[in-house]
Amino acid sequence: MFISFEDYLKDVAADPSLKQVAETIARLSEAAIEVQRAISVGRITKTTHGDNSGQNASGETQKALDVFADEAFLRAAKSSHVLVYGSEEQDVPVVFDAGSLALAIDPLDGSSNIETNISVGTVFSLLPVHASHKEAPAEAFQQLGKNQLAAGFFIYGAQLLLVMTVGAGTRTFIHIAEQGGFFLLNEMNIPVTSREYSVNASNRRYWSSGIARYIKDVEAGEDGPRGRNFGMRYVGSLVAEAYRILQRGGVFLYPADQRAGYHEGRLRQLYEANPIAFCIEQAGGSATDGTTRILNLAPKDLHARTPLVFGSQSEVETIAEYIHVRSA
Ligand code: AHM
Ligand code: MG
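A: This is the predicted complex of the input protein with magnesium ion.
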């Protein structure tokens, strides 16, 4: 028998400290269905596809679908228990009238893949707003990632999936339109060891010596110091890489590099690294900035970046050893 998302959320809401979290995630899932519908019709609707709409806070070009997704999740946040909404597509956090939660969100991750029919997604993180944040709610984003109450991501791909955690394991739900909702698909469990890595190797010449040596050694396969063959997969959509790793193990790296603007890597701490790290850890994996646990990193501002390494525990540890050895 299938367990519906509704029933699962009822269980979550039985814990009074998570009731508002459960209700908020239910609203986010409705917004995700809206976004999935917009994606599925492609260029037929000009309001959601194609034309660039401007620039986001990081100076990156916004696509129409970035803006559409941001508006859909902003409405969902406003009509649930979110007091402050911090989005990749908004320069500064948006504060509503009432609520007990801070939502950090990348409304449309991997948007460079939209036209190519490759999976894109939405990544979200829910933090508590404490009494001490009431005067300046955006300060709720200054908490460590380990304070997250819930985190997850939607994947708009061959299937509409929701991967999420409230700190008691990581689960995947699949949307079945004919049945009118999401249903539990899997409890995720990342294998400890792996033979698959994921990195944008075109940046090799900008990497630190530790990262370059790690990749050189996995590429050397059974003839090299690692003594076994590895495969490589890189989609360019964080949600797709994260889900593949949750399913079958592996390791993902987006390290810092020497390009201007990449000295802290590419991915954003609050709405990419933190939520992915929470889901990965809750599935038995690890997530670091190369050496330090992501969920213990001192928070910087809303749009700050961090190097990100996550996946099978033993491989994440091996990468930290390469970084330590090379910088020693
Ligand atoms: P975005 O939020 O602007 O879409 O950027 C994040 C994306 C991730 O999905 C992906 O892991 C990474 O950027 C790919 O970067 P690159 O094209 O440098 O390999
Ligand atoms: Mg993103």
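The mean pLDDT is 94. The radius of gyration is 19 Å.
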